[in-house]
Amino acid sequence: MFKRILIANRGEIACRIIKTARRMGIETVAVYSEADRNALHVEMADEAVLIGPPPAAESYLLIDRIVDACRKTGAEAVHPGYGFLSEREAFPKALADAGIVFIGPNPGAIAAMGDKIESKKAAAKAKVSTVPGFLGVIEDDRHAVRIADEIGYPVMIKASAGGGGKGMRIAHSTGEVAEGFNLAKAEAKASFGDDRVFIEKFIVNPRHIEIQVLGDKHGNVIYLGERECSIQRRNQKVIEEAPSPLLDEATRRAMGEQAVALAKAVNYDSAGTVEFVAGQDKSFYFLEMNTRLQVEHPVTELITGIDLVEQMIRVAAGEKLKLAQNDITLSGWAVESRVYAEDPFRNFLPSIGRLVKYRPPQEISADGITVRNDTGVYEGGEISIYYDPMIAKLVTHAPSRAAAIEAQSQALDAFYVDGIRHNIPFLSALMSHPRWREGNLSTGFIAEEFPHGFSGRVPEGETARRIAAVAAAIDHVFGERKRRISGQMIGRPVTREQRRAVWLDRDEIGLDVVRNDAGAIVVRFVEADGMLSQPHQLASSWTPGMPVWHGTLDGVPLAVQVRPMANGIRLAHQGIEVTVNVYTETEAAAARLMPVNTAADTGKKLLCPMPGLVISIAVTEGQEVKAGEALAVVEAMKMQNVLRAERDGTVKKIHTAPGATLAVDALILEFA
Any residues with CB less than 8 A from the CB of 487 and at least 6 apart, and which? Predict the structure, then answer.
């Protein structure tokens, strides 16, 4: 077994590999760019080596820097994680030339399957069902249009060396093919150093299901069940689960055996993933093979009890698999949410800055419930513009799908992040979505259920009452503290019920609140007829300053995020973020007379929606534009974002130029 390995990656995956290596008694070496000097993976590793400036093309993607770091530190093997160099055939070859072991598949398997075009050719040769498409060299956008016309719309334009949703576009028309082709090539070049793309038929209403395979260097290959990754946005996975609610045992076996046959055909000898697009009728087609560890591998680990990183290390060291196919059993259900530094209320645009507060839910494994948080950040750390915006992967496991979803929902409610915008409200809303809970999924789920973007859930019904009850309990605790400070209450609770008007934004809920002799706070809601509801008890040890209210409402566990603000609090729960004011009857009467403030109109300005690099300006001063026309392209966190006109107008003045680095809300141009 290896004594020391180097991790050629960063962030959460580097930290996750270090944890397994540490458990196995293996020393670790981290590499880092200047932007990652204070990163968590650098702190966790036994040794760390600086490999270059912040851009990945000048640090993490330079093979010679990695090889040199191995020589300096005596690392015997390298784990590539995912992304960066993990699927570059040249990387394991360069390591082998230097006498260093690659913890991943052999170069031949990477060449055959890591390249998306070559993998489809190999699958077709092995008589695996594949999606119709064009795998040859596409000369230009006109050639791309001709191909798409022949295949039939819609089509998928996809980077050959791609992954993680980068370099991928869906086109429904000739115009979208031309634009999507050029954008996909640019993203592919920036992210992978390879601008080749291919085009294939896009299956309508599909599901994305993948099979985890594991092979050794002695010809043994097994599959470890499937993962469903149908909840995607912009072709990037958002939520994954294992197993899939679609598959039955016969379909699972058929997909698994096909994945194993394909892996054996290319002598695959590590952990890898064979991805399929599946129809709602359980038909399936080969998409691609990822010759690396997947981002979503934790859900497979939790339902199988197998540490995939450990298996990769053991296989790379020459060990035979100790597991046969008959040894693999799937237990329970696992759900993973990807927590990103992006603003769901502004079309998921990237957010960078300092993590002023970072308080993930407690990792536990008790009473049949597991909560696991794979992360590469810490409170006080920076989210950089240079890399993927992932903050963490929150994973829950339980005996059933419903229980795993409920555990995930509660864990997201307890996941507190301040300083940057993040997608936790969106993830929380998804966990409460009836269609998601039913398992009625497709890759179009988010586009179909949120056609106009995400604006947050509206508090209504029992959810609104739940938030109002917690708000009243928080206000009551504040009141008790004030009375202790003023000397009005010396260790005695107020036993008389107090009438309160709780405003969720401007929606009013009336209730009575009091703390009973047992120490619980009791609320009774004012019904439409003026009568009071049955009492509801809230128990919590929350005190002012705690970022999350943890407790129970009528015995049911509950977590609500609390952010103090002027004359009120802001609460977040299950995808709802709402400003809450708790008034006495006198205060409420005055508040009802106050005018409502309206936001200023910025319709005549194009503001940069996220920090980023201006790639191009598509208009000139004096030019007339129509709603929907492209105005500029801004790149952030390896994604190119097209900014479009929201209405017809004339460009009055352009305030920036290609190559400029802009802050959020920086002025790009003005309309007349």
Answer: none
Give the model confidence (pLDDT) of 64-88 as tens digits.
999 999 999 999 999 999 999 999 9
Domain identity same for 226 and 286: yes
> DSSP labels for 52-67?
E-SSGGGTTT-HHHHH
* CATH for 159: 3.30.1490.20
* Cβ 467 vs Cβ 573: under 8 Å: yes
- What phi and psi values does residue 518 have, to the nearest 5 degrees? -85, -5
Residue 114 burial (CB count, 10 A): 26
218 and 325 share one domain: yes
CB 2 within 8 A of CB 76: yes
* Cβ 341 vs Cβ 421: under 8 Å: yes
Residues 36 and 95 in one domain: yes
Q: What's 519's domain CATH number? A: 3.30.700.30
Place of tokens 């093919």: 177
Whether 288 sits among the annotated catalytic residues: the reply is yes
Question: Sign of the C-alpha dihedral, residues 315, 317, 319, 320?
Answer: positive
For 197, the enclosing helix (H) or strand (E) is strand 197-201
For residue 132, is pLDDT > 90?
A: no
Spatial CB neighbours of 545, under 8 Å, sequence gap ≥ 6: none
Contact (CB, 8 A) for 90 and 247:
no
Burial class (CB in 10 A: 0-12, 13-18, 19+), 582: buried
Please check whether residue 113 lies inside any domain of the structure: no
Across 305-314, average pLDDT: 98
Based on the fold, state whether residues 586 and 616 are members of the same structural domain: no
CATH number of the domain within which 57 lies: 3.40.50.20
Clarify whether residues 289 and 363 are in a common domain.
yes
Whether residue 578 contacts residue 592, with contact meaning beta carbons closer than 8 Å, is answered with no
Structural domain range at position 51: 4-103
Single out the catalytic residue among 76, 176, 226, 288. Answer: 288
Same domain, 260 and 374: yes
Counts of helices then strands in the chain (DSSP H, E): 17, 40
pLDDT tens-digit map of 435-466: 999 999 999 999 999 998 999 899 999 999 99
Distance between CA atoms of residues 506 and 578, nearest Å = 10
Domain count, the chain: 5
For the stretch 636-647, what's the b/e string if a residue is b when 16 or more beta carbons lie within 10 angstroms of its beta carbon? bbbbbbebebee
